[in-house]
């Protein structure tokens, strides 16, 4: 009997220990993610939007704005035309905005990049359709988008700010397959960090799983772009990615370092390798010291796509701002 009692006590202690560990892990992740459930929404952890609650619809509509931008860029590069009107209107029928610029890229000189571009274009169009279906009547209309490659276009403004071209230079991402890759590089890493940063804001697990699925696809896209640029072995291209990365770091501010969440003042990287010879190591996956992908808040993402490090509600690739409730960098 004593042996049975001792065995029962040991079993109870084991279960208690497991319960405590589960509670500790839950507390750790709650603190690490910095979120708190509140009436079906999450209290936003960004200090710039402290005390503001965002709904799942707000978060998905914010993502939809980014998908509109990416889909239009890739579809124009592949087809010379963008999304159909039925994929740009709001869920309640309001017409979508306009697209400035966009042109078909001649991929005949690099058919492999053309194949990548066609795959990514189809994926981005599918993301738009999926998010619109998930949101239903709550889906926002596409805002006005600038993807022009001329002297007054958003791509040129971004390239000038990064020092990829001179103050009077022009960057046209539709001029060649290589220029197209650099244009895609401007978007893809930002998309990955945007989805990762927004994930803790979602309260519906089905939406969270769907967002994780899109995040994975965006990460694949970013890896394709980064790997293809790196494999060309052109130092000028590597240098250009470092300049674009530095510009994004400048635009998105200096948040306090958090190695668990992947947040920090240096949350961006180009594709420059480290080491040399037998120690040469590529940098195709931009990660922190814990091997984690970086996160950006919606405000930081807007700083980048608006091409404005300060307080802004419009600019850059969204000349009149994004649509929905998450519109301002602050």
TrEMBL record:
Q: Where is the composition biased (Basic and acidic residues)?
A: 258-269
Q: Which stretches are transmembrane?
A: 27-45
Q: Give the keywords, sorted.
A: Membrane, Transmembrane, Transmembrane helix
Going by the entry's taxonomy, the superkingdom of the source organism is recorded as Bacteria
One short Pfam name that applies is: Ferritin_2
Instruction: Give the region (Disordered) as residue ranges.
Output: 251-279
The answer to whether keyword Membrane applies is: yes
Has the keyword rRNA-binding been applied to this entry? no
Protein name as annotated: Ferritin-like domain-containing protein
**Highest lineage ranks of the organism?**
Bacteria, Pseudomonadati, Pseudomonadota, Alphaproteobacteria, Sphingomonadales
């Amino acid at each position: 009997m004593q042996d049975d009692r001792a065995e029962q006590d040991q079993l109870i202690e084991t279960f208690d220990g497991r319960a405590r560990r589960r509670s500790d892990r839950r507390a750790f992740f709650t603190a690490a993610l910095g979120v708190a459930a509140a009436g079906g929404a999450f209290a936003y952890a960004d200090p710039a939007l402290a005390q503001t609650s965002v709904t799942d619809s707000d978060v998905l509509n914010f993502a939809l704005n980014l998908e509109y931008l990416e889909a239009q860029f890739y579809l124009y590069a592949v087809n010379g035309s963008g999304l159909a009107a039925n994929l740009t209107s709001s869920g309640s029928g309001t017409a979508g905005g306009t697209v400035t610029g966009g042109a078909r890229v001649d991929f005949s000189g690099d058919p492999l990049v053309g194949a990548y571009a066609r795959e990514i274009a189809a994926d981005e169009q599918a993301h738009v359709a999926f998010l619109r279906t998930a949101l239903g009547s709550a889906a926002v209309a596409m805002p006005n988008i600038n993807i022009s490659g001329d002297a007054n276009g958003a791509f040129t403004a971004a390239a000038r700010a990064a020092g990829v071209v001179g103050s009077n230079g022009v960057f046209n991402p539709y001029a060649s397959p290589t220029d197209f890759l650099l244009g895609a590089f401007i978007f893809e890493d930002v998309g990955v960090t945007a989805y990762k940063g927004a994930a803790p804001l979602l309260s519906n697990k089905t939406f969270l799983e769907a967002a994780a699925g899109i995040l994975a696809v965006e990460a694949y896209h970013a890896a394709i772009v980064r790997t293809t640029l790196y494999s060309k072995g052109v130092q000028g291209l590597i240098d250009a990615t470092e300049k674009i990365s530095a510009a994004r770091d400048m635009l998105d501010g200096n948040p306090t370092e958090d190695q668990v969440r992947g947040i920090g003042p240096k949350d961006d990287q180009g594709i420059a390798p480290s080491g040399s010879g037998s120690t040469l190591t590529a940098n195709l996956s931009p990660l922190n010291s814990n091997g984690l992908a970086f996160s950006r808040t919606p405000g930081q993402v807007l700083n980048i796509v608006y091409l404005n490090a300060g307080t802004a509600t419009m600019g850059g690739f969204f000349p009149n701002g994004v649509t929905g409730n998450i519109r301002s960098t602050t």
